[in-house]
Amino acid sequence: MYVYEFRTMLKRWTFIILWWWAIGTYAQECPTITYPENGGTNIPVDGTISWTVVSGINGYIISMGKTPGGVDILNRFNTGVANSYTAPTGLPDNTLIYLSISVVPYDGPPKACPGITFTTEDVTTPPACTQLIAPDNNAANVTIVTDLIWAYAPTATHYRLSIGTLPGVYDIFDSDVGNVLSYNPPVDLPNETLIFVRIIPMNENGQNVVCPEESFSTGPPAYSCDPYVDALTGETIATKPVIEFPSLIGICSNELPYTVTTEDSADGFRWFRTIGGSEETLLSESREVRLSEPGRYRYEAYNNISVNGSNVECAETKLFTVVTSEIATITAINVLNTPPGKQITVQVSGLGTYEYALDSIDGPYQESPIFEQVIGGGHIAYVRDKNGCGIAQRTVDRDLNEKDFPVFFTPNGDGINDYWQYVPPPENYEMTLSIISIYDRYGRVLAEVNPESIGWDGQSNGRPLPSSDYWFKAITADKIEIKGHFTLKR
Fold it and tell me: What kind of architecture, by CATH, is found in domain 31-120?
């Protein structure tokens, strides 16, 4: 008796452990959005969206819009492995926002996860003032070609930037620059000059008119790295390297981390990861760099020029974006019969940028997934990733054969396999049969089956037929006959 009770208890605990393990495994498939809560209201426009960590994935993709599935606020932004996101210039106020997060596995397409909705606060006051991040207030020897970068002012929707050479006198620049956090002045700043800057954040409620001025000093004239003409030879001499590096790099998601190498000629190189437009991290000072995630980067190549016994760097720079790509997953192929010919539409999912071809893996490829006036017969659709991550293919509307029909059925009333019926294969999205005839071994017609009905129940003239082999003949809309046999089991 004790052995029986022990075995019973062991089975019970084994079941409980497996049940909890299954729940934990399922829970790891999608993150749980921890802020804001689903249906939350009065969410701050500068709030940070956060979610639980999912282990064993390549990253997250977050989207936000004003309609279900919309991306008009944020279009499929890849956060890497970071499980939070703060909109750099804030969210729109008093808005119902649809938020969705997808997980990016290492070996497949992104998986969409359940989303939420929330409503942001109704902002009723002007924003507070901001401050310069670069150059710093009171900085000295600032280059005359500097960008101005400032901090986000919560609830601001645009900024007025004023630049001048005297307090309150904005003789260099004075205009609304929109909802941005940096600006490159249209002209070089004067050398060895105290520069005054005022930034006024604004929204629909107005502006704070008492925002203070900040200032910095520019440095002395620097050596010009512009090309010059050699006085002896008349040859134009370039001091900066010529950069031929691309502005966009597509990397297959299964290739990360990925090493990029430049072929440009220069004395030295630097590679930076840029974050938010104002923060940079130096990654490499060699000809190559190892990239571990998609995002925005800056590449710099420079030559060392000797001027009056001192070394001067003449640099050229290039911003570039790394995007992850992958082979497409063909999710559906829709076929529409039209008088001039078939219309074939290929539906795909994936991170890549794709182009489409029909019947030949070598193309020609087209941008559109829709093919018009396609002649009848079997076809193969090809989807090629433009970044070289592979070609997906799938058969379109192939010819039917007897293997597309069930080989047996059991009409015994148990609700399982009670009817014999043709089921269209995955490649065929239209019912192409007109009628199916059922015969016995002597060629007598026992039943006529409509392909759109539930199927044959194993009866002829109201009486059940015995277990045996039976034959069928199906006729397609193109008058093609398909013959075969199957077994009725009771």
Answer: Sandwich (2.60)
A 10 A CB-CB count for 107 gives: 8
Strand partners, 419: none
Task: Please tell me the least confidently modeled range out of 4-13, 176-185, 393-402.
Answer: 4-13
Inform me whether the pLDDT recorded for 388 exceeds 60.
yes
Residue whose C-alpha is closest to residue 420's, from 440, 449, 396 = 449
User: What residues does each domain of the chain span?
Assistant: 1-27, 31-120, 132-217, 228-318, 329-396, 402-488
Classify burial at 245, counting beta carbons within 10 Å of its beta carbon; exposed 0-12, middle 13-18, buried 19 or more: middle
Could you say which of 3.10.20, 1.25.40, 2.60.40, 2.40.50 is the CATH number of the domain covering 402-488?
2.60.40
Instruction: For residue 87, give both structure tokens.
Output: 């909109």
- What are 261's two structure tokens? 């190498």
Residues 30 and 54: beta-carbon distance below 8 Å = yes
Terminal-residue alpha carbon distance, the chain: 44
**Is residue 444 over pLDDT 90?**
yes
Strand 158-164 and strand 74-80: pairing?
Answer: unpaired
Contacts with 21 (C-beta within 8 Å, 6 or more apart), sequence order: none
Q: Tens digit of pLDDT for each residue in 256-269? A: 888 999 999 999 99
Burial of 120 (0-12, 13-18, 19+ CB in 10 A): buried
Residue 5's pLDDT band, with cuts at 50, 70 and 90, is very low
Residue 187: enclosing H or E segment and its boundaries?
Answer: none
Strands 248-252 and 310-325 turn out to be parallel
Which residue, among 400, 483, 408, 402, has the nearest Cα to 438 in the 3D structure?
483
